[in-house]
Amino acid sequence: MIRNSTDEIEVLIALMAKLPGLGPRSARRAVLHLIRKRALLLTPLADSMSEVALSARECLNCGNVGTSEICDICTDDRRANGELCVVEDVGDLWAMERAGVFKGRYHVLGGTLSALDAIGPEELRIPRLVDRVTAEAISEVILALNATIDGQTTAHYIADQLQDQVKLTTLAQGVPIGGELDYLDDGTITAAMRARKEI
Amino acid sequence: MIRNSTDEIEVLIALMAKLPGLGPRSARRAVLHLIRKRALLLTPLADSMSEVALSARECLNCGNVGTSEICDICTDDRRANGELCVVEDVGDLWAMERAGVFKGRYHVLGGTLSALDAIGPEELRIPRLVDRVTAEAISEVILALNATIDGQTTAHYIADQLQDQVKLTTLAQGVPIGGELDYLDDGTITAAMRARKEI
Q1: Range 35-54 of B in CB contact (< 8 A) with A
Q2: In this entry, which stretches build a coiled coil (chains A, B) (predicted)?
Q3: Which end of chain B is more exposed for a tag (fewer CB within 10 A), N or C?
Q4: Which domain holds residue B121?
């Protein structure tokens, strides 16, 4: 079966190896595991993937991934508190939701501005963001972009677009909880020092 | 969508997190990747899993995983060369096939003997192995079990069963190709030293 590359199992291994975090070796291991747990895992996983392939869609309003045209967060009136959190990616939105600290709505850009990759404001739903600020009576836009050069460039561009229309904030920078100074980069230590607070 | 635990996407994340090598965080990342590559990856993967769930089966003769009652290796007459390689697991069989050095047939035990887990010879296809040695006119049984205590205990048990019926061999132990002495355990160095060869 290993020699016949058209074999169903080989096809599955090749597909699994395309997942982030799995290489060819771990894909083989995962497929063997799936075959052993056919009823408990392989069949449910196949069914679940088919369902998600049919039902998953991007929220037309914010870019979140869900199973309806407008996502649960955008349809939840309790979250219309005037705060709008701008993130690069759906993964970042999920991370914010896990933290559970933010009670407003999101706007998912779907990446960062990049001259090299020809990604301009239109590709990133930035015009839609500007529209939403007015349409949803937003009072504060929180730019929760990654602390990378591309993320910060994009944050500056958005800040320019929304200047004087709305309160603009960004996440605080500093020492992460549980972080050891010895393992932090100089930039983080500098940022934490500059933003030091009286206790 | 993150708050509704019956959501299809949450179900898929929970199932993916059960794969070896993926935790909750990497499962979320994988699912986002799948949703983004719906046509290229998610749908083909779902279809491939359904197919494998229906077609994958253990070879009745050797325990290999394939898509027919008797696997390709067992039906290939060119591999009836009198050599039988005993491995613990299908993953080990695949590893041997990748190396491409062995041209005979396999016998997959499906584990190792373990008094603690109540795994005896019957659970490991050992009676079937003894039958095959006679039925398939095997001249050499290569015990390619893992160099762990359980693997070696099982190898000794099998060797006892087949004593005087057939030539018994095991894989050579020594320094792995590309291995640095400084990073090898004492047992490997001892084995390599004892089995040293004249050049």
Answers
A1: 35, 38, 41-53
A2: none
A3: C
A4: 73-170
